């Protein structure tokens, strides 16, 4: 046993791991600085109804520009922000931006477009979270039903009681909730009935394989599950017309993916909405 712990310590002190730690810490410092200097951006990816072929909303996605057109992926910096707790502040900023955007869109005549915001576990652990969200909606006097929170299965599984409780309060306030990346956590089925959800997002991994037999079965099962529970379903990561037609035939309600639009900054979003690129959506 002693030997094992010595070898574990030895492993821990591998120089390349130290380098990696140092690198992450320096990246986190840079994130903190850039966030405090208002350098983060919130981009938007349209979501399209398969029944009307119209844009019905969008997902807000963080972007961290670093140097001449380069961005650090959220897949890299979100885990750092979560680990350090910085995501609580960043998340409040994202929420504020999203509510402001809902208000702005309404002023441009788009008064029925919802915005979905991703929420991490450290935000739920914060006792002020629910009130922060409700205050934000009130401050901009927007329709709470136009704000949607996206949570992943891992968030639910981490602290089911805290999350269910918070979601119930948010639902009572009229705010919508979607479960993100559904199907890859595969352990939250037991909680599905207790969660006050509005929408299930079929994970990109299943959409990618939806035209193959195995992928087809899983996507159809998730969509059926959503239907049986009275929830709306959206397929994420739709990149081809074949994938769109497949999920459409399965009865999926909405789609989001590069086939329609990539995430874009506000100015471009307004152009996209004005151009109302519906012809890109194949007619069924
Ligand atoms: P997510 O919430 O599952 O977001 C969907 C991701 O899929 C986004 O990646 C989006 O750009 C990408 N995507 C959409 N359509 C397609 C497609 O057709 N093909 C491909 N290959 N990708 C597609 P992104 O923007 O890099 O974000 C990655 C993750 O970072 C998000 O996954 C989310 O978990 C997290 N994230 C992003 N913004 C926020 C935020 O404001 N707060 C929190 N807590 N997490 C965020
Ligand atoms: Mg999401
Ligand atoms: Mg997702
Ligand atoms: Mg994801």
Give start-end ranges of low-pLDDT stretches.
1-7, 278-284
Helix fraction, binned, reads 40-55%
Terminal CA distance reads: 64 Å
Bound molecules: ligand C2E, magnesium ion
Number of strands: 9
Largest sheet: 8 strands, mixed, barrel
Average of the residue pLDDT scores = 90
The helix/strand series, from N terminus to C terminus, equals HHEEEHHEHHEHHEHEHHEHEH
Strand-pairing-aware structural class: alpha/beta
Radius of gyration: 20 Å
Strand arrangement, largest sheet? 1-2-4-5-6-7-8-9
Task: Give a written overview of the molecule.
The radius of gyration is 20 Å and the shape is globular. It is built from 13 helices and nine strands. The chain is 51% helix and 18% strand. It is an alpha/beta fold and 284 residues long. It has an eight-stranded mixed β-barrel, surrounded by five helices. Helix 3 (74-84) packs across helix 4 and helix 4 (86-107) runs parallel beside helix 6 (129-139). The chain has helices spanning 2-12, 15-36, 74-84, 86-107, 121-125, 129-139, 153-158, 160-172, 189-192, 204-208, 213-228, 241-249, 266-275; strands at 41-49, 55-65, 71-72, 114-118, 147-152, 176-182, 199-202, 232-236, 254-256. The structure holds ligand C2E and magnesium ion (3 copies). One magnesium ion (MG) is lined by residues 59, 118, 150, 180. It comes from Arsukibacterium ikkense. This is Diguanylate phosphodiesterase. Residues 24-277 form the EAL domain.
């Amino acid at each position: 046993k002693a030997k094992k712990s010595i070898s574990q310590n030895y492993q821990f002190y591998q120089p390349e791991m130290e380098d990696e730690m140092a690198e992450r810490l320096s990246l986190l410092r840079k994130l903190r600085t850039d966030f405090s200097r208002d350098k983060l951006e919130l981009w938007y990816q349209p979501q399209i109804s398969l029944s009307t072929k119209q844009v019905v909303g969008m997902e807000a996605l963080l972007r961290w520009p670093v140097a001449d057109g380069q961005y650090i992926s959220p897949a890299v910096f979100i885990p750092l922000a979560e680990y350090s707790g910085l995501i609580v502040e960043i998340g409040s900023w994202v929420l504020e931006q999203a509510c402001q955007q809902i208000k702005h869109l309404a002023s441009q005549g788009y008064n029925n477009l919802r915005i979905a915001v991703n929420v991490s576990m450290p935000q739920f652990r914060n006792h002020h979270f629910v009130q922060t969200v409700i205050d934000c909606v009130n401050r901009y006097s927007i329709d709470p039903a136009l704000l949607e929170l996206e949570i992943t299965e891992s968030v639910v599984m981490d602290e089911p009681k805290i999350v269910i409780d918070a979601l119930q309060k948010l639902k009572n306030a009229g705010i919508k909730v979607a479960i993100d990346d559904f199907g890859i956590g595969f352990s939250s089925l037991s909680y599905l009935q207790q969660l006050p959800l509005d929408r299930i997002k079929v994970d990109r991994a299943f959409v990618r394989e939806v035209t193959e037999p195995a992928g087809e079965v899983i996507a159809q099962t998730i969509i059926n599950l959503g239907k049986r529970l009275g929830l709306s379903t959206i397929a994420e990561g739709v990149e081809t017309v074949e994938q769109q037609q497949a999920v459409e035939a399965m009865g999926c309600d909405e789609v989001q993916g590069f086939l329609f639009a990539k995430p874009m900054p506000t100015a471009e979003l307004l152009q996209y909405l004005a151009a109302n690129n519906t012809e890109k959506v194949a007619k069924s």
